[in-house]
Amino acid sequence: MGFGILHRVGRAISLLQRSGLKPEIIEVSIDKSLGKISAKTVLSPENVPPHDRSVLDGYAMRWSDISTASENSPALLTLARDIRIDQENPGEIHQGEAAKVATGSPIPKGANVVVPREYTEIIGNRVKVFKAFAGGYGISTTGEDLRKGDVVIRKGDVVREWHLAILASLGFDKVRVYREFKAAVFATGDELVEPGTHKRPGQVYVSTARLVVSWLKTRGIEARYIGIVPDKRNRIKREFEELAEHNDIVISTGGTSVGDKDFTSRALREVADDFIHGLALSPGKPAAFGIINGKILMALSGMPVAAISELIAVFDPYYRNIIGREDPWEPVLKAKMGKKYTSHPGFTNVVRSILCQKGNELKVYPLRVTGSGILSTLIRANSYFVISEEITGIEEGEEINVRLISERVKECEEYGLR
């Protein structure tokens, strides 16, 4: 017995959208927002800094007065004033004058350079300058950090530590975020055992379910691993039903193909109000999706690469749409194909790859694997790209969009690639 008709990825995405499931918008203190998804684009209400200010302790002056200053021929200026950090009106200095400033002090009108204190000497009310500095040195200009109206955080972004710092510096004490979806993930398979226990011949440690949980958490979803459920259709069915009562999303891994002991997709079919099984997706053909009482049910492959492919191709577009996130989670870079790639005709292809630097250009090489259970490709790959079902292949040298999942891009030679 086969899958019959394989559904296009777009149909699976539409099914999830029909659930009507959307996260609630809540307001939390910035101290509790880390890792949550911003529900609003926040703009800077002011310039940062609000005025030109000194970034060091020293003396503000006109560059033309010190342009030829040196140890042997110092410039001599009159010390006109001492400007405090909290001074609202720093006044103005004229030719031949200097003003004492501290780090953070506003810059007086007419000044365009700050000379560090260690390159000066004070004699009475005069300032000797022993080195010429370029115009603008020592000055942070108005709006240099942020201009009024600049984006601080976009709707759909995960709140990170730097967002907190900027929000706090602008006086925000609260931020609007989405309440996290709750997701429960369980593994199916009589051959599965938990890590840390003795494994007998033929048994396998649970890994794919944990991979799914981790993937969801990086996207601001409150995901938890439930455990192993035996290969019994009624038990799997009950698990879907009971977990859906207390979670927004219920995900299983394993048992989604069409073998005699693949009960998961059959159980999901019996539970769901709306259901599809089998995708035109490589890897990831055996996935099943359903809805029950407005909750999302997903039966993913037990093979790790296929499971992640199913999440990337189906769940991610749905989820990014409902939280208003336009861009992928990973940086998207343009790169040239290092060698020709032939995709599965009529299938959406999620391709693990190596992105590397060759001279002045980026090149990408697909990782050829023999099956979707090759977990090591998730470690070896530093990127991936998606080929839509309309495309049958990509020629060598053709430029494509690649999503980077590593911290850095190495030289191609470091991977043994040319």
CATH architecture grouping of the largest domain:
3-Layer(aba) Sandwich
So, the CATH homologous superfamily of the largest domain?
A: MoaB/Mog-like domain
Report the C-alpha radius of gyration, rounded.
30 Å
Structural class, judged by helices and strands? Answer: alpha/beta
In total, the number of domains comes to 4
Largest sheet, spatial ordering of strands: 7-4-6-5-9-8
Sheet with most strands: 6 strands, mixed
| Helix share, percent | 10-25%
Strand content: 25-35%
Q: What's the CATH first level of the largest domain?
A: Alpha Beta
**End-to-end gap:** 45 Å
Treating each run of at least 4 consecutive H or I residues as one helix, how many helices? 7
Uncertain stretches? none
The name CATH uses for the topology of the largest domain is: Molybdenum Cofactor Biosythetic Enzyme, Chain A
Number of strands: 29
Shape, principal axes of CA atoms: elongated
What's the overall average pLDDT, rounded?
93
